[in-house]
Amino acid sequence: MNDWEQYDVVGIGIGPFNLGLAALAEEGTSLKTAFFDKTQVFQWHPGMLLERSDLQVPFLADLVTFANPMSHYTFLNYIHQQNRMFQFYFFKRFDIPRREYSDYCAWVASQLDNCHFGQEVVDCTYEPEHGGYAVSIKDVQSGEEKKVMTTHIILGTGSSPLIPPPLEEKLNEDVIHTSRYLHHADEIKEARSVTVIGSGQSAAEVFYDLLEKQADNRFELTWLTRSPGFFQLESGKLGQEVFSPDYVDYFHKLSFEQRQEALPTLGGLRNGVEAETLRNIYDLLYHRTIRHDGLPVRIQAMTEVNDIQPVDEQFYKLSCKQWQQEKEFTHTSEKVILATGYKPLIPSWLMNMSEELEWEDEKRFRVSHDYRLEWKEQRPHHFFTLTNLEHSHGASATNLALSVQRNQAILNTIVGEDVYPVRSDTIFQQFEVE
Protein backbone atom coordinates (compact mmCIF):
# COMPACT_ATOMS: atom_id res chain seq x y z
CA MET A 1 0.00 0.00 0.00
CA ASN A 2 1.39 3.44 -0.92
CA ASP A 3 1.77 6.24 1.61
CA TRP A 4 0.57 9.00 -0.69
CA GLU A 5 -1.77 11.60 0.77
CA GLN A 6 -5.40 10.58 0.31
CA TYR A 7 -8.23 12.90 -0.78
CA ASP A 8 -11.92 12.49 -1.46
CA VAL A 9 -11.74 14.96 -4.34
CA VAL A 10 -8.93 16.44 -6.41
CA GLY A 11 -9.72 19.32 -8.75
CA ILE A 12 -7.43 20.00 -11.68
CA GLY A 13 -7.29 23.67 -12.66
CA ILE A 14 -8.52 26.63 -10.59
CA GLY A 15 -10.63 28.86 -12.76
CA PRO A 16 -14.01 30.23 -11.66
CA PHE A 17 -15.68 26.82 -12.15
CA ASN A 18 -13.43 24.79 -9.84
CA LEU A 19 -12.91 27.75 -7.52
CA GLY A 20 -16.65 27.91 -6.87
CA LEU A 21 -16.71 24.17 -6.26
CA ALA A 22 -13.81 24.48 -3.81
CA ALA A 23 -15.72 27.14 -1.87
CA LEU A 24 -18.97 25.14 -1.79
CA ALA A 25 -17.13 21.97 -0.75
CA GLU A 26 -15.40 23.79 2.10
CA GLU A 27 -18.58 25.39 3.45
CA GLY A 28 -21.14 22.65 2.90
CA THR A 29 -19.37 19.29 3.14
CA SER A 30 -16.80 17.41 5.20
CA LEU A 31 -14.98 16.20 2.10
CA LYS A 32 -11.20 16.30 2.06
CA THR A 33 -10.47 18.22 -1.13
CA ALA A 34 -7.49 19.70 -2.96
CA PHE A 35 -7.42 21.84 -6.10
CA PHE A 36 -4.24 22.40 -8.11
CA ASP A 37 -3.27 24.98 -10.73
CA LYS A 38 0.07 25.64 -12.42
CA THR A 39 -0.23 29.44 -12.20
CA GLN A 40 1.40 31.06 -9.18
CA VAL A 41 -1.72 33.08 -8.31
CA PHE A 42 -5.34 33.08 -9.40
CA GLN A 43 -5.67 34.44 -12.94
CA TRP A 44 -8.80 34.93 -15.01
CA HIS A 45 -8.18 36.11 -18.60
CA PRO A 46 -5.52 38.63 -17.47
CA GLY A 47 -4.84 39.66 -21.05
CA MET A 48 -8.41 40.88 -21.52
CA LEU A 49 -9.17 42.77 -18.29
CA LEU A 50 -9.71 46.00 -20.21
CA GLU A 51 -10.73 49.21 -18.51
CA ARG A 52 -14.54 49.58 -18.59
CA SER A 53 -15.12 46.04 -19.85
CA ASP A 54 -17.95 44.32 -17.98
CA LEU A 55 -18.95 40.80 -17.14
CA GLN A 56 -21.63 39.55 -19.54
CA VAL A 57 -23.74 38.08 -16.73
CA PRO A 58 -25.21 39.77 -13.60
CA PHE A 59 -23.17 39.82 -10.40
CA LEU A 60 -25.54 37.20 -8.93
CA ALA A 61 -23.67 34.75 -11.17
CA ASP A 62 -20.79 34.73 -8.73
CA LEU A 63 -19.10 31.61 -7.40
CA VAL A 64 -21.71 30.54 -4.85
CA THR A 65 -24.87 32.67 -4.64
CA PHE A 66 -27.19 30.41 -6.64
CA ALA A 67 -26.32 27.54 -4.29
CA ASN A 68 -26.09 29.47 -1.04
CA PRO A 69 -26.84 33.21 -0.90
CA MET A 70 -25.75 33.19 2.77
CA SER A 71 -22.23 32.00 1.90
CA HIS A 72 -19.19 33.93 3.11
CA TYR A 73 -17.93 33.83 -0.48
CA THR A 74 -20.66 35.82 -2.24
CA PHE A 75 -19.77 38.84 -4.35
CA LEU A 76 -21.88 41.05 -2.09
CA ASN A 77 -19.87 39.99 0.93
CA TYR A 78 -16.67 40.72 -1.01
CA ILE A 79 -17.97 44.23 -1.77
CA HIS A 80 -18.87 44.64 1.89
CA GLN A 81 -15.41 43.52 3.00
CA GLN A 82 -13.82 46.05 0.60
CA ASN A 83 -15.94 48.89 2.03
CA ARG A 84 -17.47 49.44 -1.40
CA MET A 85 -21.11 48.66 -0.61
CA PHE A 86 -22.37 52.23 -0.90
CA GLN A 87 -20.40 52.86 -4.08
CA PHE A 88 -21.88 49.69 -5.55
CA TYR A 89 -25.35 50.72 -4.39
CA PHE A 90 -25.07 54.03 -6.23
CA PHE A 91 -23.48 52.27 -9.23
CA LYS A 92 -26.99 50.83 -9.82
CA ARG A 93 -25.92 48.08 -12.19
CA PHE A 94 -26.16 44.30 -12.25
CA ASP A 95 -23.23 43.88 -14.64
CA ILE A 96 -19.91 44.45 -12.90
CA PRO A 97 -16.43 45.28 -14.23
CA ARG A 98 -14.39 42.27 -15.27
CA ARG A 99 -11.45 43.53 -13.23
CA GLU A 100 -13.63 43.55 -10.13
CA TYR A 101 -14.88 40.03 -10.81
CA SER A 102 -11.29 38.85 -11.21
CA ASP A 103 -10.30 40.54 -7.94
CA TYR A 104 -13.31 38.94 -6.23
CA CYS A 105 -12.24 35.47 -7.39
CA ALA A 106 -8.69 36.10 -6.19
CA TRP A 107 -10.12 37.17 -2.81
CA VAL A 108 -12.01 33.88 -2.53
CA ALA A 109 -8.99 31.84 -3.60
CA SER A 110 -6.79 33.54 -1.00
CA GLN A 111 -9.08 32.30 1.79
CA LEU A 112 -9.37 28.66 0.74
CA ASP A 113 -6.87 26.23 2.18
CA ASN A 114 -7.83 23.61 -0.42
CA CYS A 115 -6.52 25.71 -3.36
CA HIS A 116 -2.86 25.16 -4.28
CA PHE A 117 -1.18 27.35 -6.90
CA GLY A 118 2.13 26.79 -8.63
CA GLN A 119 1.29 23.07 -8.74
CA GLU A 120 0.87 21.49 -12.18
CA VAL A 121 -0.91 18.16 -12.65
CA VAL A 122 1.27 16.30 -15.14
CA ASP A 123 -0.33 12.85 -15.07
CA CYS A 124 -3.32 10.93 -13.76
CA THR A 125 -3.87 7.18 -13.82
CA TYR A 126 -6.72 5.02 -12.63
CA GLU A 127 -5.63 2.70 -9.83
CA PRO A 128 -8.77 1.22 -8.25
CA GLU A 129 -6.67 -1.14 -6.15
CA HIS A 130 -5.36 1.96 -4.34
CA GLY A 131 -8.76 3.59 -3.99
CA GLY A 132 -9.20 5.71 -7.12
CA TYR A 133 -6.90 7.94 -9.15
CA ALA A 134 -3.17 8.54 -8.71
CA VAL A 135 -2.41 12.18 -9.53
CA SER A 136 1.14 13.31 -10.30
CA ILE A 137 1.83 16.94 -9.39
CA LYS A 138 4.91 19.03 -10.23
CA ASP A 139 5.96 22.09 -8.26
CA VAL A 140 6.41 24.73 -10.97
CA GLN A 141 9.26 26.53 -9.20
CA SER A 142 11.30 23.64 -7.80
CA GLY A 143 10.43 21.01 -10.39
CA GLU A 144 9.84 18.46 -7.65
CA GLU A 145 7.08 15.92 -8.23
CA LYS A 146 4.77 14.14 -5.83
CA LYS A 147 1.74 11.89 -6.07
CA VAL A 148 -1.58 11.95 -4.26
CA MET A 149 -4.53 9.57 -4.33
CA THR A 150 -8.12 10.66 -4.72
CA THR A 151 -11.46 8.93 -4.82
CA HIS A 152 -12.84 11.34 -7.40
CA ILE A 153 -11.46 13.79 -10.00
CA ILE A 154 -12.91 17.09 -11.22
CA LEU A 155 -11.38 18.39 -14.45
CA GLY A 156 -11.54 22.17 -14.69
CA THR A 157 -8.75 22.99 -17.13
CA GLY A 158 -10.83 25.55 -19.00
CA SER A 159 -9.97 26.54 -22.54
CA SER A 160 -7.07 27.58 -24.73
CA PRO A 161 -6.94 29.98 -27.71
CA LEU A 162 -8.51 28.62 -30.88
CA ILE A 163 -6.36 29.56 -33.87
CA PRO A 164 -7.52 28.53 -37.37
CA PRO A 165 -5.06 25.96 -38.81
CA PRO A 166 -3.62 28.22 -41.55
CA LEU A 167 -2.67 30.80 -38.92
CA GLU A 168 -1.49 28.56 -36.08
CA GLU A 169 2.18 28.81 -37.06
CA LYS A 170 2.07 32.59 -37.53
CA LEU A 171 1.85 33.66 -33.89
CA ASN A 172 4.69 35.86 -32.62
CA GLU A 173 5.12 39.22 -30.86
CA ASP A 174 3.31 41.00 -33.71
CA VAL A 175 0.59 38.43 -34.44
CA ILE A 176 -1.19 37.58 -31.19
CA HIS A 177 -4.43 36.14 -29.84
CA THR A 178 -6.70 38.46 -27.85
CA SER A 179 -5.88 36.46 -24.71
CA ARG A 180 -2.49 38.25 -24.73
CA TYR A 181 -3.75 41.69 -25.76
CA LEU A 182 -3.05 43.66 -22.57
CA HIS A 183 0.46 42.19 -22.37
CA HIS A 184 1.26 43.85 -25.71
CA ALA A 185 -1.18 46.78 -25.76
CA ASP A 186 1.41 49.55 -25.34
CA GLU A 187 3.53 48.55 -28.34
CA ILE A 188 0.43 47.73 -30.41
CA LYS A 189 -0.87 51.27 -29.93
CA GLU A 190 2.45 52.67 -31.16
CA ALA A 191 2.24 50.79 -34.46
CA ARG A 192 1.37 52.41 -37.77
CA SER A 193 -1.32 49.88 -38.62
CA VAL A 194 -3.31 47.33 -36.61
CA THR A 195 -5.78 44.69 -37.78
CA VAL A 196 -8.32 42.90 -35.58
CA ILE A 197 -9.76 39.61 -36.89
CA GLY A 198 -13.02 38.26 -35.45
CA SER A 199 -16.54 39.42 -34.67
CA GLY A 200 -17.33 38.51 -31.06
CA GLN A 201 -17.22 40.48 -27.83
CA SER A 202 -13.45 40.21 -27.45
CA ALA A 203 -12.87 41.51 -30.98
CA ALA A 204 -15.22 44.43 -30.38
CA GLU A 205 -13.64 45.37 -27.05
CA VAL A 206 -10.12 45.34 -28.49
CA PHE A 207 -11.24 47.33 -31.54
CA TYR A 208 -12.92 49.92 -29.34
CA ASP A 209 -9.88 50.17 -27.07
CA LEU A 210 -7.70 50.82 -30.13
CA LEU A 211 -10.23 53.20 -31.66
CA GLU A 212 -10.10 55.37 -28.56
CA LYS A 213 -6.31 55.51 -28.74
CA GLN A 214 -6.25 56.12 -32.49
CA ALA A 215 -6.88 59.84 -32.14
CA ASP A 216 -3.44 60.27 -30.54
CA ASN A 217 -1.22 58.89 -33.31
CA ARG A 218 -3.57 58.22 -36.24
CA PHE A 219 -2.54 54.63 -36.97
CA GLU A 220 -4.56 52.67 -39.52
CA LEU A 221 -7.14 50.48 -37.82
CA THR A 222 -8.88 47.56 -39.56
CA TRP A 223 -11.55 45.14 -38.33
CA LEU A 224 -12.18 42.03 -40.44
CA THR A 225 -14.40 39.02 -39.87
CA ARG A 226 -15.57 36.09 -41.94
CA SER A 227 -18.99 36.32 -40.24
CA PRO A 228 -21.82 37.80 -42.33
CA GLY A 229 -21.87 40.92 -40.16
CA PHE A 230 -21.15 42.54 -36.82
CA PHE A 231 -24.21 41.38 -34.93
CA GLN A 232 -25.58 42.15 -31.49
CA LEU A 233 -25.80 39.47 -28.82
CA GLU A 234 -29.39 38.38 -28.23
CA SER A 235 -30.33 39.48 -24.72
CA GLY A 236 -34.12 39.04 -24.61
CA LYS A 237 -35.26 37.83 -21.21
CA LEU A 238 -37.27 34.84 -22.41
CA GLY A 239 -34.45 33.89 -24.76
CA GLN A 240 -31.99 33.97 -21.87
CA GLU A 241 -33.98 31.23 -20.13
CA VAL A 242 -31.94 28.65 -22.04
CA PHE A 243 -29.26 29.46 -19.43
CA SER A 244 -31.28 27.66 -16.77
CA PRO A 245 -31.20 24.23 -15.09
CA ASP A 246 -34.54 23.45 -16.75
CA TYR A 247 -33.13 23.86 -20.25
CA VAL A 248 -29.99 21.88 -19.37
CA ASP A 249 -32.23 18.99 -18.27
CA TYR A 250 -34.19 19.21 -21.52
CA PHE A 251 -31.11 19.50 -23.74
CA HIS A 252 -29.27 16.57 -22.15
CA LYS A 253 -32.21 14.23 -22.81
CA LEU A 254 -32.06 14.87 -26.57
CA SER A 255 -30.19 12.47 -28.80
CA PHE A 256 -26.68 13.43 -29.88
CA GLU A 257 -27.95 14.26 -33.36
CA GLN A 258 -30.74 16.45 -31.97
CA ARG A 259 -28.29 18.26 -29.71
CA GLN A 260 -25.94 18.91 -32.61
CA GLU A 261 -28.81 20.34 -34.64
CA ALA A 262 -29.95 22.51 -31.72
CA LEU A 263 -26.61 24.21 -31.00
CA PRO A 264 -26.50 26.45 -34.12
CA THR A 265 -30.02 27.70 -33.37
CA LEU A 266 -28.71 29.07 -30.07
CA GLY A 267 -25.88 30.99 -31.70
CA GLY A 268 -27.43 34.42 -31.21
CA LEU A 269 -27.58 33.83 -27.45
CA ARG A 270 -23.91 32.84 -27.21
CA ASN A 271 -22.14 34.70 -29.99
CA GLY A 272 -22.21 38.36 -30.87
CA VAL A 273 -21.40 41.69 -29.28
CA GLU A 274 -23.09 43.43 -26.38
CA ALA A 275 -25.38 46.23 -27.55
CA GLU A 276 -23.55 48.83 -25.47
CA THR A 277 -20.17 47.96 -26.99
CA LEU A 278 -21.52 48.26 -30.53
CA ARG A 279 -23.20 51.54 -29.60
CA ASN A 280 -19.98 52.93 -28.14
CA ILE A 281 -18.04 52.04 -31.28
CA TYR A 282 -20.60 53.60 -33.60
CA ASP A 283 -20.95 56.76 -31.49
CA LEU A 284 -17.20 57.30 -31.41
CA LEU A 285 -16.97 56.84 -35.18
CA TYR A 286 -19.84 59.29 -35.67
CA HIS A 287 -18.33 62.01 -33.46
CA ARG A 288 -14.99 61.73 -35.23
CA THR A 289 -16.56 62.48 -38.61
CA ILE A 290 -18.48 65.64 -37.69
CA ARG A 291 -15.91 68.15 -38.97
CA HIS A 292 -13.45 66.00 -40.87
CA ASP A 293 -13.24 62.75 -42.74
CA GLY A 294 -12.38 60.84 -39.62
CA LEU A 295 -9.43 58.58 -38.98
CA PRO A 296 -8.26 55.73 -41.20
CA VAL A 297 -10.66 52.96 -40.19
CA ARG A 298 -11.81 49.94 -42.21
CA ILE A 299 -14.58 47.65 -40.96
CA GLN A 300 -15.41 44.71 -43.21
CA ALA A 301 -17.41 41.52 -42.70
CA MET A 302 -17.69 38.45 -44.97
CA THR A 303 -13.90 38.41 -45.17
CA GLU A 304 -11.74 35.36 -44.54
CA VAL A 305 -8.07 35.73 -43.63
CA ASN A 306 -6.37 32.63 -45.02
CA ASP A 307 -2.71 33.42 -44.49
CA ILE A 308 -0.34 35.88 -42.83
CA GLN A 309 3.15 36.35 -44.25
CA PRO A 310 5.90 38.79 -43.24
CA VAL A 311 6.70 41.39 -45.89
CA ASP A 312 9.75 42.79 -44.12
CA GLU A 313 10.85 43.27 -40.51
CA GLN A 314 7.78 45.36 -39.66
CA PHE A 315 4.81 44.53 -41.88
CA TYR A 316 2.69 41.49 -42.66
CA LYS A 317 0.66 40.66 -45.73
CA LEU A 318 -2.76 39.16 -45.03
CA SER A 319 -4.25 37.00 -47.78
CA CYS A 320 -7.98 37.72 -47.67
CA LYS A 321 -11.13 36.67 -49.48
CA GLN A 322 -14.53 38.35 -49.54
CA TRP A 323 -16.42 35.08 -49.69
CA GLN A 324 -19.76 36.42 -50.87
CA GLN A 325 -18.21 38.13 -53.88
CA GLU A 326 -15.59 35.40 -54.19
CA LYS A 327 -12.90 38.08 -54.55
CA GLU A 328 -9.40 37.69 -53.17
CA PHE A 329 -7.23 40.61 -52.05
CA THR A 330 -4.26 41.38 -49.81
CA HIS A 331 -4.07 43.66 -46.82
CA THR A 332 -0.93 44.94 -45.08
CA SER A 333 -0.64 45.49 -41.33
CA GLU A 334 2.12 45.99 -38.77
CA LYS A 335 0.22 44.27 -35.93
CA VAL A 336 -2.46 41.57 -36.12
CA ILE A 337 -4.80 40.54 -33.29
CA LEU A 338 -6.72 37.28 -33.63
CA ALA A 339 -10.06 37.31 -31.81
CA THR A 340 -10.77 33.77 -32.95
CA GLY A 341 -12.21 32.33 -29.75
CA TYR A 342 -11.30 29.40 -27.55
CA LYS A 343 -11.42 25.60 -27.51
CA PRO A 344 -11.61 23.13 -24.59
CA LEU A 345 -8.23 22.36 -23.07
CA ILE A 346 -8.03 18.58 -22.69
CA PRO A 347 -4.87 17.24 -20.95
CA SER A 348 -2.86 14.72 -22.94
CA TRP A 349 -2.94 12.27 -20.03
CA LEU A 350 -6.74 12.12 -20.26
CA MET A 351 -6.46 11.14 -23.91
CA ASN A 352 -4.31 8.22 -22.78
CA MET A 353 -7.54 6.86 -21.29
CA SER A 354 -9.51 7.35 -24.53
CA GLU A 355 -9.89 3.62 -25.22
CA GLU A 356 -11.67 3.23 -21.88
CA LEU A 357 -14.12 6.09 -22.46
CA GLU A 358 -17.52 6.12 -24.12
CA TRP A 359 -17.59 8.58 -27.06
CA GLU A 360 -20.48 10.27 -28.87
CA ASP A 361 -18.28 10.89 -31.90
CA GLU A 362 -14.54 11.02 -32.60
CA LYS A 363 -14.05 14.27 -30.64
CA ARG A 364 -16.77 14.34 -27.97
CA PHE A 365 -16.84 12.02 -25.00
CA ARG A 366 -20.12 10.95 -23.44
CA VAL A 367 -21.02 12.89 -20.30
CA SER A 368 -23.74 11.96 -17.80
CA HIS A 369 -26.39 14.36 -16.59
CA ASP A 370 -24.34 15.03 -13.45
CA TYR A 371 -21.16 15.79 -15.45
CA ARG A 372 -19.39 12.43 -15.07
CA LEU A 373 -17.34 10.98 -17.91
CA GLU A 374 -18.90 7.67 -18.88
CA TRP A 375 -16.61 4.64 -19.06
CA LYS A 376 -17.05 1.40 -20.96
CA GLU A 377 -16.69 -0.37 -17.64
CA GLN A 378 -18.47 1.43 -14.82
CA ARG A 379 -16.32 2.85 -12.04
CA PRO A 380 -17.19 3.65 -8.43
CA HIS A 381 -14.59 6.42 -8.62
CA HIS A 382 -16.03 9.30 -10.63
CA PHE A 383 -14.25 11.58 -13.09
CA PHE A 384 -16.22 14.80 -13.51
CA THR A 385 -15.56 17.34 -16.24
CA LEU A 386 -16.29 21.07 -16.34
CA THR A 387 -14.92 21.48 -19.87
CA ASN A 388 -15.90 20.17 -23.34
CA LEU A 389 -19.58 20.13 -22.35
CA GLU A 390 -21.29 22.06 -25.13
CA HIS A 391 -22.32 18.91 -26.98
CA SER A 392 -23.78 17.30 -23.86
CA HIS A 393 -25.24 20.19 -21.85
CA GLY A 394 -25.82 22.91 -24.43
CA ALA A 395 -25.20 26.63 -24.60
CA SER A 396 -24.80 26.74 -20.84
CA ALA A 397 -21.45 24.96 -21.05
CA THR A 398 -19.42 28.10 -20.36
CA ASN A 399 -22.06 30.17 -18.55
CA LEU A 400 -20.85 31.45 -15.19
CA ALA A 401 -24.29 31.35 -13.53
CA LEU A 402 -24.84 27.72 -14.44
CA SER A 403 -21.38 26.78 -13.21
CA VAL A 404 -22.86 26.94 -9.71
CA GLN A 405 -25.64 24.52 -10.66
CA ARG A 406 -23.03 22.17 -12.13
CA ASN A 407 -21.07 22.28 -8.91
CA GLN A 408 -24.19 21.59 -6.88
CA ALA A 409 -24.94 18.49 -8.96
CA ILE A 410 -21.35 17.24 -8.68
CA LEU A 411 -21.15 17.66 -4.90
CA ASN A 412 -24.55 16.04 -4.44
CA THR A 413 -23.38 12.99 -6.40
CA ILE A 414 -20.11 12.72 -4.47
CA VAL A 415 -21.70 13.12 -1.03
CA GLY A 416 -24.71 10.94 -1.93
CA GLU A 417 -27.34 13.42 -0.78
CA ASP A 418 -28.64 16.86 -1.69
CA VAL A 419 -26.25 19.03 0.30
CA TYR A 420 -27.04 21.77 -2.24
CA PRO A 421 -30.49 21.02 -3.70
CA VAL A 422 -30.78 21.80 -7.42
CA ARG A 423 -34.01 23.67 -8.10
CA SER A 424 -36.41 22.89 -10.95
CA ASP A 425 -39.30 24.89 -12.40
CA THR A 426 -37.05 27.95 -12.26
CA ILE A 427 -38.33 29.73 -15.39
CA PHE A 428 -41.57 30.80 -17.07
CA GLN A 429 -41.45 28.69 -20.24
CA GLN A 430 -41.56 24.97 -20.92
CA PHE A 431 -39.39 23.00 -23.36
CA GLU A 432 -40.80 19.50 -23.11
CA VAL A 433 -44.19 18.18 -24.19
CA GLU A 434 -45.58 15.89 -21.51
UniProtKB/TrEMBL annotation:
Keyword Flavoprotein: yes
SUPFAM superfamilies from the UniProt entry: FAD/NAD(P)-binding domain
Keywords in alphabetical order: FAD, Flavoprotein, NADP, Oxidoreductase
Catalysed reactions, semicolon-separated: L-lysine + NADPH + O2 = N(6)-hydroxy-L-lysine + NADP(+) + H2O
Pathway this chain belongs to: Siderophore biosynthesis
A Gene Ontology molecular function term of the record: L-lysine 6-monooxygenase (NADPH) activity
InterPro entries according to UniProt: FAD/NAD-bd_sf, Lys/Orn_oxygenase
Regions that span the bilayer: none
Known EC number: 1.14.13.59
Family (UniProt): Belongs to the lysine N(6)-hydroxylase/L-ornithine N(5)-oxygenase family.
Name listed for the protein in its UniProt record: L-lysine N6-monooxygenase MbtG
Natural source organism: Halalkalibacter nanhaiisediminis
